[in-house]
Automatic annotation (TrEMBL):
<dbReference type="Pfam" id="PF01966">
    <property type="entry name" value="HD"/>
</dbReference>
<protein>
    <submittedName>
        <fullName>Haloacid dehalogenase</fullName>
    </submittedName>
</protein>
<dbReference type="InterPro" id="IPR006674">
    <property type="entry name" value="HD_domain"/>
</dbReference>
<dbReference type="InterPro" id="IPR003607">
    <property type="entry name" value="HD/PDEase_dom"/>
</dbReference>
<feature type="domain" description="HD/PDEase">
    <location>
        <begin position="37"/>
        <end position="154"/>
    </location>
</feature>
């Protein structure tokens, strides 16, 4: 295992906030779902959680709630490209499902609830109430863009091979 790829494993303070959650089967199950084509939902959530944790720690904000809610912000178990909801779009529905699932495995504070429910602000109307919620919202977008760029880089690198496969 390369330290630079999984820095959260070597951060004792961060792990003290999320380690118990990470050991839960409900959270581990996220590793079974592809997220943004290049990652798993668990790795995506860990990247969001750890990056947001480092930012809030730097500013002296609530890094514990940020780390926990960042990890739980996408705690849902379906392929969002294939699932439709009567209640609204995936951007509206999945944070509420994630919050309900998070409540089943741990106590969620008001701050953590706001972070989870509002992390899709921009795609949804209601703005976050807390600065930590804004951090997770923007970090979630940043990580998603980073994942998309990795996918594009891979496609570019292997474009000749992909063209040959399409021709067959």
């Amino acid at each position: 295992m390369i330290k630079k790829d999984f820095p959260w494993l070597y951060d004792a303070e961060y792990m003290s906030y999320v380690g118990t959650l990470l050991d839960m089967p409900e959270v581990q199950k996220l590793d079974e779902f592809t997220h943004h084509y290049i990652s798993t939902r668990l790795l995506h959530s860990l990247n969001v959680s750890y990056t947001a944790y480092k930012i809030t720690k730097k500013f002296g904000w609530n890094q514990k709630a940020t780390a926990r809610a960042g990890l739980l912000h996408d705690l849902f178990y379906y392929d969002w490209r294939e699932t439709k909801f009567d209640e609204g779009s995936h951007a509206y529905v999945h944070p509420r499902i994630a919050y309900q699932n998070a409540q089943k495995i741990t106590t969620i504070s008001k701050l953590e609830k706001d972070i989870i429910i509002k992390h899709m602000w921009g795609a949804t109307i209601a703005p976050p109430r807390y600065k930590e919620s804004f951090v997770v919202t923007f970090v979630d977008d940043y990580v998603a863009i980073k994942e998309w760029c990795q996918l594009m880089k891979m496609k570019w690198k292997y474009r000749k091979h992909l063209k040959k496969e399409k021709a067959i």
